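MODEL INPUT / OUTPUT PAIR
PAIR INDEX: 1
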Amino acid sequence: MNGLLWAAAGTGFTFFMTALGASVVFFMKKQSSEGVQKIFLGFAAGVMIAASVWSLLIPAIEEAEQLGRIGWIPAAGGFAAGGAFLMLLDKFMPFFHPEPHRAEGVKQGLRHSAMLIFAITLHNIPEGMAVGLAFALAAKENSSVLLASAIALAIGMGIQNFPEGAAIAMPVRQSGAGRLKAFLWGAASGIVEPIFGLLTVLISGSVIEFLPWLLSFAAGAMLYVVADELIPEAHLEGSRLGTIGVMAGFMLMMILDVALG
């Protein structure tokens, strides 16, 4: 019970920070110039690249090695599976298709927003599980040291989630959605963290084995969206604004991930 309560508080905080990041859309103009839109898309791409490396792939390798396995095998396998999954989803889900190939009646313009939301939401699942596992271990061992470590992890994850919430909400807003809708999409991407964090506490004994694969699977899915959608969309002929956005987003998430451990 203590583990559930602690995990609920920790993952509730990470969800709150995602929603707080998404709230930046309430201070944005309804429509910005094409250059600003490219910066927002580039920022989202940079955030996702850095999060894939420092929040997902490196922890996947470290977790696998702690379990006595070869670190790169689940990292590479899960990464490839995540990319392949998004590729298949892209192929078979009609609302992801460009207009000439889209099934009749499917709303236009949903492609990169839908994939962006899906990828970051998928990335939040193993993060919520990691926080849940940390609190489950602290409760099992009844250790104040492990509890402090779990709290620190939740705070770090929460701070990292702020730019991730913004990385969803800003491009959705720029695609023409209303402020409230963009905010709700950005905030909703973080709700999976408390859900999967609490589930992980309940089944903590069996989920540890699969965590490296889940982390790297999410990384592969995120990198697919970055390479296939965000970076091409952020390219602006005769300008480097999209590139600046990518580098700024990457640098911000790199600093947060490394500084917060």
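PAIR INDEX: 2
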Amino acid sequence: MRYGLFDELAKLYRENGFRLYLVGGSVRDGLLGRPFTDFDFATDATPEEEKAFLGQDAADYSFEKYGSLRLIGKNAEITTLREEGEYKDHRHPSRVRFVKDPLLDYKRRDFTVNAMYLDENYRLIDYSGGMADLRGKLLRFVGDPDKRVREDPLRILRAYRLAKTLGFEIEKTSLRAIRDNLPLLGGLNPAKIREEERKGYSHEEE
């Protein structure tokens, strides 16, 4: 399992003194042998540092304050490794702090099967037991399930969608947190709900 875009970008980042990781749904689906078209990457470079070697016109930097950029014409999103503050609006972190180590970044991610990284040598980095859950066909929140759901209630819909798409069961404590926090769905932007539902019908990944 090798990906030309990953190899190309990892080489570019390495030449400029940074690391690039394949992460999230890309790793999960690759390990499951499922096809995917969108690549998710994580890096220790900040958007400001990336502009110096990617160029201003090679990416959309609209969300650079969150550490995210999207490569134009590449179906690839690159996000700086980060820690996040409290989610005061049930959707966005109150602050982000860029970090250098995936060990700090993984804690903010939603599910264990989405919190695995591949480094440039295709070595798996798995701090949360994602591979075990992948083998066991379990969908489990990273860390405290109640906290994960309250941070972003859209994760409730995402959990049901992924469980259905992958044929996984939702782990018991994760399912309890989902059921306890169902009323939070009432405060979500209807457009976001429709978008999540559309992904379920088309089997697209975030």
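PAIR 2 NOTE: The chain has a mean pLDDT of 90.
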